Amino acid sequence: MNKALRKAVIAGNWKMNKTPAEAKELLDAIKPLVKDADCDVVACVPFVDLSVALEATAGSNVKVGAENCHWEPSGAYTGEISAPMLAAMQVPYVIIGHSERRTYFGETDVTVNKRVKAALANGLTVILCVGEYLEQREQGVTGEVVALQTKIDLQGVSAEELKRVIIAYEPVWAIGTGKTATAAQANEVCALIRATIADLYSKADADALTIQYGGSMNAKNAEELLDQPDVDGGLIGGASLKPEDFAAIVKAASR
Ligand code: PGA
């Protein structure tokens, strides 16, 4: 982390977990544990939990996010939710391009880019996920893959809009597997993403960008990962469902 230059952000990604009643219970448990955080704290929850989550976190330092949004404002897209719908609910954050969306639901960098632009146009802050598959790391093309994703996913995004973008570097082989990237591996790719942003925008824009690491970050390894200069936070899956573990990660980002 480099808090002199940019914000540290710890975001939970609840994925397809928790009913509305369970969401309220989890947030009620998390809130007191993170109330003194010296970093931004976000809980990204399933669409059906958004209402309850906004209510449960009102007046607290926990912000709410969605896990995806469509690029069109409305229309014949059964099962999708649009950015204006999230904006109307005053949901401040949205995850876009998570590897589970890319792997299981056919998301490409082109559709990710459209979703990013729609979210930004509607005033949301985007947590944009990029990351390589294991084969790509083994082939030595991690840098190329992540730079390409970053470039395509941000096509047409202005420097002004970039201020509402957080990039989450999530190596796919580390997600939900218990296999974390080493602190050095995480920092190397986060630094590379920052260099890509410096090329596309400016060094000042790159310096100000929050870049999270995600992939089996937990209460034990968070401190070492967050100690890296280019790792500005975490996108937390499994551990975000456990209040004490999530709070421990928030504490590690609050130093
Ligand atoms: P994990 O998930 O922490 O369970 O590995 C991270 C993510 O998918 O964002």
The fourth-level CATH homologous superfamily is Aldolase class I
Cα-based radius of gyration, to the nearest Å: 17 Å
**Bound chemical compounds:** 2-phosphoglycolic acid
CATH architecture: Alpha-Beta Barrel
Please list the strands of the largest sheet in the order they lie side by side: 1-2-3-4-5-6-7-8
Look at the helices and sheets and give the structural class.
alpha/beta
Instruction: Give the N-terminus to C-terminus distance in angstroms.
Output: 10 Å
How would you characterize the overall build of this protein?
This protein has helices at residues 20-34, 50-57, 83-88, 99-104, 109-121, 134-138, 142-153, 159-162, 183-200, 203-208, 222-226, 243-253; strands at 9-13, 40-44, 62-66, 93-96, 125-130, 165-169, 211-214, 233-236. The chain is an alpha/beta fold and 255 residues long. The protein has one domain (9-253): TIM Barrel (Alpha-Beta Barrel). Strands 1-2-3-4-5-6-7-8 form an eight-stranded parallel β-barrel, surrounded by six helices. The radius of gyration is 17 Å and the shape is globular. The model has no long low-confidence stretch (mean pLDDT 97). 2-phosphoglycolic acid (PGA) binds next to strand 8.
